[in-house]
Amino acid sequence: MTEKKVSLLDGFKAFLMRGNVIDLAVAVVIGAAFTQVVNSVVKGIINPVVGAFGTQDLDAYSTCIKGTCKVVNGEVQGIKILWGSVLGATLSFLITAAVVYFLMVLPMAKYLARKAERDAAKEGTKEVVELSELEVLKEIRDALVAQSRGGGAPGGTAGGQPSDRP
Question: DSSP letters along 3-43, please?
Answer without folding.
Answer: --PPPHHHHHHHHHHSHHHHHHHHHHHHHHHHHHHHHHHII
